[in-house]
C-alpha cells in the first residue's frame, strides 16, 4: 500500500464514516500489448505436451513489439537472466520483474502481484523505477532458450515478498530464481482489456476460447452513492413511521369504540 505516492492513481475508492477521504486504494491492470494475440495460455495442456513442463504464464504477440506496464508498479529487477557465456540465448533471455500493489482482480479480490516477463529484445526501464500504464518498458523479442519465435511471456504471482522466485524454473539465473511454491495466477482472470486495446487468440495458438474471455475495463468503476443510499433509507423510515402512526390512531379509535359499547350495554 503506497499512500501519498503520486504515481499510485486510484481507480476505486473505499470511504469510511470518518472524514478521511481514502482509506483503501486499488487498481485494475490492463494488457501489456495494445493489439494482443495469445499464443499459449496459463497451464495449457498442449504447451505441456510440447515442452514437457507446465506453463506458469501466458505467451502473446502484438501487431508491434511495444510492451507497456499493466498498471502502477515498481520495477524490481531487469536485464539478461542468462550467463555471459551463452549470451541472450541462455535461460529466460532479457527479463523484467515488476510489482503491482493492491490489484483488484476480476473476481473483486485485491492482492499485490509480482509480474515476471521474459524474452525481451530491448529493455527501457531500470530497477527501482516506477511505471504506469503509459510506460513502454521494452520491446519483446526472441531472447532465451525456450522460445520458438518472438513473443512475450507474462506470469503473475501473489508472492510479492519474493518477486524473482518463479515456480517451475529448475535452476537460478542472474535474475530469475528457482521457486518452490506455486503461487502463480492466470493473467486472464486478473487483467482487463483497456480502452483502445484488443485481445484475441493467435492463429494456431494454444488456447481454448473460454481461456481468452477477458472483460473490458469498466469506464467508470462503480462507486457507492452514499447520499442516495441515505435518502432511500430515510424515505423508508418515514414510510414505516407513517404506517405506525396510522396503526396507533386506528387502535385508539377501536378502543374508543369498545369503550362506548361497554357503556351502552352496562
Ligand atoms: Zn511462456
Please summarize what this structure is.
This protein has 2 helices and 15 strands. The chain is an alpha+beta fold.
Structure description:
The chain is of the alpha+beta class. It has helices at residues 45-51, 226-265, and strands at 12-14, 24-26, 35-40, 58-62, 66-68, 73-80, 94-104, 110-123, 130-131, 136-140, 152-157, 165-166, 177-178, 184-185, 198-206. The strands form three sheets. Strands 3, 4, 5, 6, 7, 8, 9, 10, 11, 14 and 15 form an eleven-stranded mixed beta sheet that branches. It has a two-stranded antiparallel ribbon with strand order 1-2. Strand 7 and strand 8 (110-123) form a beta hairpin. The protein starts with 11 loop residues before the first strand and ends with a helix. Residues 1-23 have low confidence and may be disordered. Bound molecules: zinc ion. Residues 40, 55, 57, 59, 153 line the site of zinc ion.
CATH topology of the largest domain: Glucose Permease (Domain IIA)
Going by CATH, the architecture of the largest domain would be Distorted Sandwich
Number of strands: 15
Q: What is the CATH C-level name of the largest domain?
A: Mainly Beta
Largest sheet: 11 strands, mixed
What sequence of helices (H) and strands (E) makes up the elements?
A: EEEHEEEEEEEEEEEEH
Helix content: 10-25%
Which descriptor suits the 3D outline? Answer: elongated
How many whole angstroms does the radius of gyration measure? Answer: 28 Å
Rounded mean pLDDT score? 88
Overall SS class: alpha+beta
Poorly predicted runs of 5 or more residues: 1-23
Q: What portion of residues belong to β-strands?
A: 25-35%
Number of domains: 2
Q: Ligands in the structure?
A: zinc ion
Number of helices: 2
CATH homologous superfamily classification of the largest domain: Glucose Permease (Domain IIA)
Distance between the termini: 80 Å
